[in-house]
Known about the structure:
Elements: E1 7-9, H1 13-24, E2 29-31, E3 38-42, H2 46-56, E4 65-67, H3 83-92, E5 97-102, H4 109-112, E6 117-121, H5 126-135, E7 139-140, H6 155-162, E8 168-170, E9 182-185, E10 192-195, H7 208-218, E11 238-242, H8 247-256, E12 261-266, E13 280-286, H9 289-306, E14 310-314, H10 321-332
Parallel strand pairs: 1-8, 2-8, 4-6, 5-9, 11-14, 12-13, 12-14
Antiparallel strand pairs: 2-3, 3-7, 4-7, 5-6, 9-10
This protein binds threonylcarbamoyladenylate and magnesium ion.
Amino acid sequence: MSVVRPRVLATQTADLQLAAETLRAGGLVAFPTETVYGLGVHARDAAAVERLFRVKGRPADNPVIVHLADLDALGQVAAQVTPLARSLAAQFWPGPLTLVLPAHDEVPSAVTGGASTVGVRVPDHPVARALLAAADLPVAAPSANRSGRPSPTTAAHVTADLGADVEVVVDGGACRLGLESTVVDARGRVPVVLREGAVTREDLGLDDRGSDRLLRASHPPTAPSPGTRYRHYAPRCAVEVVGPGQGRAIAALRARAGAHVGLVAAAPVGADVGAAGDRVTVLAAFRTAGELGQQLYGALRRGEQAGVDVIVIEAVPDVGIGRAVMDRLRRAAGQLG
Ligand code: TXA
Ligand code: MG
């Protein structure tokens, strides 16, 4: 175990006890989940939540997700657990699905961004669950990046962004999914997707026409998650999304025009990108949309570190997990939010 400032801990029981005590004492603890690293604080400690917002540089009206060790604690966070929430939790928890429900009185308004609802999920990561169980608290945790930066998918990403501003980083290796959870409004009779994620519309039994039809019947339209209004996932260089199979050609074109180019494309990419090859750095090669999702944020950060002018990324079909991937790609390219 290497101990630095912040304390980067391994995932043995003793370390998790120390991390859990830090949470109980109002400290900031970054920890791995199956989606991305979260920056956790005691959700009922309003002062700790306020510090969390300061450290992230997060707008006060953007609510944070409360994380639980298991379903049993849901009643401490939500004032009302709808039949829909019960059935989604039974189907998808632990897992990358956040349910928005009426907030319990004991949840500080800093957590809910001043709204009457709260987002809550049970993550599917052994370290996250062990930490949450040891802390025995609801833990408010946004992604552990500085606001506006790509979400962290390794402990090194967390320390690069937040440095000594957090007490503890629990290092659980790379996150399995690499994209944030799906956020759904679960107050009505059908789920309303507020942010795309690893649990897909197809998984939820929604297709675009079907959900619209059901929505009109049961529920007024709901605004997307407040967080989706802000520019997100943005690296410090340009991002250009291109069609499937076009990455190499467009990267070579940009390189011939004098740019240092980062390339993220479907495998195999190969080193041959024409005469401009030495000005093209391959940042990631993916076989599936899920693999692109897993590698995307790391590739954006690697591109920055390599000092590229532009990252060229091949699009994937806008279905299934591809919908969440394309949502993040468009945001990184500044086309949304
Ligand atoms: O996978 C994830 O969700 C990760 C891990 C750490 O759990 N967390 C995460 O948190 O992505 P954050 O804060 O980066 O994004 C939370 C999103 C924001 O878009 C926020 O607006 C939305 O969830 N959200 C949280 N509570 C909400 C609520 N009560 N109503 C609507 N949207 C909510
Ligand atoms: Mg975030």
